[in-house]
Every structure is written in C-alpha cells, then in structure tokens.
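Budget justification aside, the reviewers requested a transparent look at the raw inputs and outputs of the sequence design task funded under Objective 1. We therefore reproduce one unedited record. The lines immediately below are the structure tokens for a 75-residue chain.
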C-alpha cells in the first residue's frame, strides 16, 4: 500500500524527491501518512478534495484484496 501511494503522489507533484510516505500498522487497520512539499499540497488534494478522495478510493480498493482497512492521511 505504501508503494502505491508513493507512486501516485510522485506522479502528481512538481518535487517528487520531497514526497514522504510512512506506514503505521495497527491490529485491524493500516494508516498511511503522506507528506509533500507545501507548494505541492494543492496538487495532491485537488479542487474540493477530489484528487485526495480518488487516492483514498484506489488504496481502499487495493486493500480489500488483502482484507485490510487502510486510512490515508495527507499531512
């Protein structure tokens, strides 16, 4: 999941070297934290949060295959 979020985020931003993705595993869920450069924040979130919602949808679809619950947080 971490790699998936990283690939998507790097494709969207102007500074792909500043993309940081960390994964925190719990008992039933996995939290994926995405950090990007401040000037790229708008590109990752999108108008009215549409791109952020799309990223979460893709990751949740991939997580269903592994029977996990994944939460994507953009910091």
């Amino acid at each position: 999941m971490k790699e998936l979020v990283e690939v998507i985020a790097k494709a969207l931003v102007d500074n792909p070297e500043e993309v940081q993705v960390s994964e925190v595993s719990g008992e039933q869920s996995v939290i994926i934290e995405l950090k990007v450069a401040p000037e790229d924040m708008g590109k990752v979130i999108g108008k009215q949060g549409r791109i952020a919602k799309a990223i979460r949808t893709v990751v949740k679809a991939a997580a269903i295959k592994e029977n996990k619950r994944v939460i994507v947080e953009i910091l």
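The mean pLDDT is 92. The longest helix spans residues 50-65. Computational costs for records of this kind are itemized in the attached budget.
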